[in-house]
Amino acid sequence: MMQKVNSIEEYLEVNSHFAEALDVLRQIINSTELVETLKWNAPVYTLNGKNVLGLGAFKNHFSIWFFNGVFLKDERKVLVSANKKTKALRQMRFESLHDIDKAIVLAYVKEAIENQNLEKNYKLAVKIKL
User: Fold this and answer.
1) Which among 20, 28, 47, 62 has the fewest CB atoms less than 10 Å away?
2) With contact defined as beta carbons under 8 Å apart, do 109 and 53 qualify?
3) Taking the chain, what is the end-to-end CA distance rounded to the nearest angstrom?
4) Buried b or exposed e, range 108-125, using 16+ CB within 10 angstroms
């Protein structure tokens, strides 16, 4: 069973085997306008209250979860589907700090933000019947 945590820092402590690498991802994500929160016992990043992505640490890998990752272009073919139940969710998996290409991670994070903004603008346009 996963240990309950009360902060992102505590999450990093509990997952100390990947803490340095997770912190690198956290710095990349926090360089954007996403808001860092703790949901489901893990770091989740939101935009206008909507979940955009999250961080996850496991026994042999760690990842960035993109809640609407199915809509990312994935030109680098780095995203994987966690399982058949998670239709829109995609993850970018890593096994070590050295697997992180900061430019690629930032590009995917920015595309996820852009997609979330487009969805918000589309919903607004539909609501006011443009």
Assistant:
1) 20
2) yes
3) 49
4) bbebbbebbeeeeeeeee
Element (H, E) at 117: helix 102-127
- Would you call 102 helix, strand, or coil by DSSP? helix
Q: How far apart are CA 12 and CA 52, in angstroms?
A: 20
| pLDDT tens for the 130 residues of the chain, in order | 467 899 999 999 999 999 999 999 999 999 999 999 999 999 999 999 999 999 999 999 999 999 999 999 999 999 999 777 778 899 999 999 999 999 999 999 999 999 999 877 676 666 666 5
Q: Which strand ranges, in their side-by-side order, compose the sheet holding 35-39?
A: 35-39, 42-47, 50-57, 62-66, 90-94, 79-80
Question: What is the C-alpha separation between 20 and 12, in angstroms, rounded?
Answer: 8
Going by C-alpha positions, the residue among 49, 81, 83 that lies closest to residue 68 is: 81
Q: Which distant-in-sequence residues (6+ apart) come within 8 Å of 86 by Cβ? A: none
Contacts of 42-49 with CB under 8 Å at 24 or more apart are 42/11, 43/8, 43/11, 47/113, 47/116, 47/117, 48/116, 48/120
- What one-letter code names the amino acid at 83? N
